[in-house]
Amino acid sequence: MHKQKILVVCLGNICRSPMAEGILKYLVKERGLIQSIELDSAGTGAYHIGSHPDIRAQEVCLSKGITLSHQARQVNRMDFDAFDYIVAMDTSNYDVLKKIAPHDRLYLMRAFDPLAQSDLNVPDPYYGGIQGFQEVYEMLYRSGNGLLDHIEKEKGETNVA
Ligand code: 4NP
């Protein structure tokens, strides 16, 4: 069976996208989808290559039972062939990705957040306090469930066809 591969992308790959990766892995496990969905994260920037997630991102996720174990890497052209879904955290990441290469399934993460209104950005929490990371966690949790609903629905439709 072809695994659906999801790449979540932010700027530094030390705050939002490793949190999204960890939360999505948790939700994938909860839904019994480990055999069919694979996850990774990357950054559009190169500032933090090799770094572990920001300690605040680790703490907020750990308080929810999620351990983050990613090391930052920069997105590259090969990712556009390797991944079925590429999901950007904000419109700036989205625009950078769009310039690298075309992709059929390039999305904004908060397009899947049922509580999002006109602003579809997951705000960068790096220069703020822990509360910003907690808010990001909640957005990513809601969006992660929405994204998995979307993928499961797409898969169901493909199977019927
Ligand atoms: P992230 O946050 O994109 O959510 O990983 C950032 C982390 C570091 C920097 C920017 C954003 N930085 O410029 O160092």
Can you describe this structure?
With 161 residues, the protein is of the alpha/beta class. It has one domain (4-160): Response regulator (Rossmann fold), CATH 3.40.50.2300. 43% of the residues lie in helices and 13% in strands. It has five helices and four strands; from the N terminus they run βαβααβαβα. It has helices at 16-30, 55-62, 77-82, 91-100, 130-160; strands spanning 4-10, 37-43, 85-88, 106-108. A four-stranded parallel beta sheet has the order 2-1-3-4, with helices on both faces. Strand 1, helix 1 and strand 2 (37-43) form a beta-alpha-beta unit. The mean pLDDT is 96. The structure holds 4-nitrophenyl phosphate. 4-nitrophenyl phosphate (4NP) binds next to loops. Residues 10-16, 47, 124, 126 line the site of 4-nitrophenyl phosphate.
